[in-house]
Amino acid sequence: MSNRLLEIENLTTSFRIGDGYYAAVDNVSLTVNRNEVLGIVGESGSGKSALAFSIMRLHNRAKIEGKINLEDTDLVKASTNELNKLRGDSLSMIFQDPLTALNPLMEIGAQIGETLVLHRPQMSKKQRYDRVIELLNLVGIPRPEHVYQQYPHELSGGMRQRVVIAIAIANKPQLLIADEPTTALDVTIQAQILDLIHKLKEEMDAGIILITHDLGVVAEMADRVAVMYAGEIVEVAEVHTLFENPLHPYTRSLLNSVPTEGQDKLHVIQGIVPSLKNLPRTGCRFAARIPWIDESAHEENPVLHEVSPGHYVRCTCHSKFYFPEEGKEGEANGAS
Amino acid sequence: MWKFIVRRLLVTFPQIVLLSILVFVMAQFMPGDALTGQVDPNVSPEIKQQIRERLGLNNPWYVQYTDWIGGAVTGDFGQSFRFKMPVTDLIEQRIYNTFWLSLVTLIFMYIIAVPLGIISGRYNDTWLDQTITGYTYLGFATPLFIFALVMLWIFGYQFGWFPTSGSVAPGLSPGSWDYVWSKFQHLLLPALSMALIGTVSTVQYLRSEIVDTKQRDFIITARAKGASESRVYNRHILRNSVLPIAAFFGWEITGLISGTIFIERIFGYPGMGALFLESVLMRDYSVVTALVLLFGVAAILGALLSDIILSIVDPRIRIK
Ligand SMILES: Nc1ncnc2c1ncn2[C@@H]1O[C@H](COP(=O)(O)OP(=O)(O)O)[C@@H](O)[C@H]1O
Ligand code: SF4
Ligand SMILES: [Mg+2]
């Protein structure tokens, strides 16, 4: 499969909390193809960032097990040196909060230029300057020559996020991870940044992992979607399959929580993602949040299985499942 | 930047005026006045009153203040009754000694603090860090004058490596190499003693700045660019951590002033600190008043200096 760019197999990332290690990413397997946008959705705390940081190998005190194959390199086994060659070059990331992601004491131009210095040492100063200006233009920053010598605090949040994006795409990465790139921004700016990523996607010919908790963004941008809950992938499907035929109750509750026309009441599933230490490690992790379902209906330790080509669900009894508002089973479009 | 500096200067002026008023009020509360010790105790009270009147000591306070501050600005702080000489001349002899002592101490302090703080912060929670932190705790807990006495006893008297008092060996002609070298030798031990104790707060400050900066998001950005560990430190962490130390500089000066008072006394070093302590003990109030004013001005100017340094290096202040 030459189209395969990233292959994650049984990835488990655990953090040390007090006396033991607790998995924030639990036995995750995923793939990303070239030219594909994989959306990862899930509530805050489900382990999306932990997954992204694991791929970038940016955790400093975490235990990582499994495989993360980027083309021919296993990032889990890679040395720091090898990682430094990949990071910022073929593998890069856009961070959530543009207000803190830039060095306050460094000129914008130098911060973008640093990626070039690190991976394109043969570039002359002039070439580097030109490339930075080109990048600033590309991400839609007006007056790039002026912004080049400005400092982060002189720019708005939206502009700063454009700079962060410019840094990430400077060396034309193969895999770009965007971890909630618009969450920290105003709604109008959010749309602009998404448009920008959309535009870059067409031009870049890269695999993109787009992490978000906004299903609207997923619907618009992603080719495939992975739904994450409590460190596990609970459902993976092509984007239209997921929206037309969501099977896992968690996915359905997420879809229900998107406000649609004519329905002003948000369906929000009660409760929150449990903290790492309090997470039940056996049985279905979602069971605690749908107490009205009879215990016996759930599989002991649900595993991901393929219900139709490319559509995986970690729930065997989804056909029996219902939300109180939806009425009894069968009325929901859950059955496949 | 210029706007900031001008604004900062505008604040400094009223600060100094306020300080001078405080010092003046303090002087008024001290027993005695400019006349004390100047006249024969046998002179009759009437004549004393006449002299008082003539010197303006019976004028309302604001007139006296204006006279006093006018004198101070032109370098006239009155007479020292103990030395029977103008306070200004007395201070002039000593101010250079104290200046050099403070400067060398400051240099030592940074020479010690910067590497220790960096190591401690970079390798935090390792045995190296714990050793350095242990030293800083010891430094906080040890009173300067006791430490200085121990240093003097060990290195001055037992080993005889350093002179034990004075600021220069007698009989050397000023300006000669030997003279300068002897001056340096004399201030080495007091400066080192003061620096070893005084630097611990800077070590701790730098450590916590580095530990803090290490976890900031832009450091993750730098790593995500593929920057090596040493580059992350040199280009990103250190600059951001050292910056607040510049803001600390003004406080160091205040600390130095109180430090010299003990240190100069213990090492018999003829500087302003020793003069201050002697003058307090001898109730030489005109000298005390002048020194308090000078110390206060030095502290205010120190704070001004650190703000100006900060405004030059920090773009968030520079660009406004
Ligand atoms: N460095 C860390 N040390 C310990 N726990 C962590 C760390 N990073 C994340 N976690 C925990 O892992 C879980 C997943 O967090 P995160 O990946 O940030 O979720 P998301 O990005 O989906 O909101 C949370 O319970 C969080 O508290
Ligand atoms: S296995 Fe049961 S508890 Fe788990 S998601 Fe499916 S229906 Fe819910
Ligand atoms: Mg996150």
Summarize the entry for a quick read:
The complex is a heterodimer of chains A (336) and B (320). With 336 residues, chain A is an alpha/beta fold.
Can you walk me through this structure?
The complex is a heterodimer of chains A (336) and B (320). With 336 residues, chain A is an alpha/beta fold. Chain A has helices at residues 48-56, 80-86, 108-119, 125-138, 144-148, 157-169, 187-204, 215-221, 239-244, 249-256, and strands spanning 4-17, 20-33, 37-41, 62-70, 73-74, 91-94, 175-179, 207-212, 224-229, 232-238, 305-308, 311-313. Chain A has 2 domains: 4-222, 3-Layer(aba) Sandwich (Rossmann fold), CATH 3.40.50.300; 246-334, no CATH class. In chain A, α3 runs parallel beside α6 (157-169) and α4 (125-138) packs across α6 (157-169). By secondary structure, chain B is mainly α. Chain B has one domain (88-317): Orthogonal Bundle (MetI-like fold), CATH 1.10.3720.10. In chain B, α4 runs antiparallel to α10 (229-266), α10 (229-266) runs parallel beside α11 and α10 packs antiparallel against α12 (285-313). Chain B is globular and about 85 Å long. Classes of the chains: A alpha/beta (336), B mainly alpha (320). The structure holds adenosine-5'-diphosphate (ADP), iron/sulfur cluster (SF4) and magnesium ion (MG). Magnesium ion (MG) is lined by residues 48-49, 179-180 of chain A.
Descriptive keywords:
heterodimer, A: 336 residues, alpha/beta, Rossmann fold, eight-stranded mixed beta sheet, four-stranded antiparallel beta sheet, 29% helix, 24% strand, disordered C terminus, B: 320 residues, mainly alpha, MetI-like fold, two-stranded antiparallel sheet, 13 helices, globular, binds adenosine-5'-diphosphate, binds iron/sulfur cluster, binds magnesium ion, nucleotide-binding (chain A), P-loop_NTPase (chain A)
